[in-house]
Amino acid sequence: MVDTKGNAFNDIDQTRVVAIKDIKNIINEFLTGNTSLYEFKTSLDSYNKQNNYWGFTAAKGQMFFNLLAKSSEADIKSLVQLLKNIITEPINLQDGLNKMKQLFEYASAYLQKSPDRRKVANPMSSAYFLSYFWQIHDHYKWPIMYSSIIVSFQKLGIWKDHDTSYGNYEYFYHMNEEAKAVLKEHTGHPISNWDLEHALWNFSGTATHNSK
Q: In a 10 Å sphere around its CB, with 0-12 CB exposed, 13-18 middle and 19+ buried, how is residue 120 labelled?
């Protein structure tokens, strides 16, 4: 994997473990009300530009966040309340899908009334966006729905598109678990979300884990 300047990371997993502590602090400052939504958004953007270990700087991450905040300017408190609920770690997959559905419907409402779809957040991006935060909470449990992984599943002929982001994520989550189980059976070793991520990234031939 490479950073935004094309430089290769020597040990992406170890650097992620360190970065998770910093990002959790940024998240907690927002959740506890010590920083505003705009400060939270700026802090995330700044940190991920310097430490691009999850591809959050791309369209489905920071750009999605920017457009969502822009659309919500007239009612920013509603977005703050929503985000404080949904970026926390879900209790289980169904809870996560319920959270994702809330964000999908929130973004869809702005999309439906916008004369220019390019100027509002794409509701389908909510799968990557939320799974990024959930993986920061627990990277062993929550896989991020990267476009590069979907490309790999498509090449393998096992991907099926759904009409909603939460439908896609539910399918993706189960495919991810099945793939880890198959690899564990063949290797005789436990397979983490990051192990599978790297394997499928190499298989797809993409330059980086990205959210585009």
A: buried
What's at 84, amino acid-wise?
A: K
Q: Look at the pTM and tell me if it is higher than 0.85.
A: yes
Provide the total of helices (H) and of strands (E) in the chain, helices listed first. Answer: 9, 0
In angstroms, the Cα distances linking 27 to 44, 86, 132, 162 are 9, 12, 12, 30
Report the distance separating Cα 163 and Cα 61, nearest Å: 20
64: nearest Cα among 139, 127, 136: 127
Structure tokens at 70: 């822009």
Q: What is the pLDDT of residues 54-64, one digit of tens each?
A: 999 999 999 99
Handedness of CA 47, 50, 54, 59 (dihedral sign): positive
Beta strands (DSSP E) in the chain are none
Q: How many Å apart are CA 53 and CA 210, to the nearest integer?
A: 10
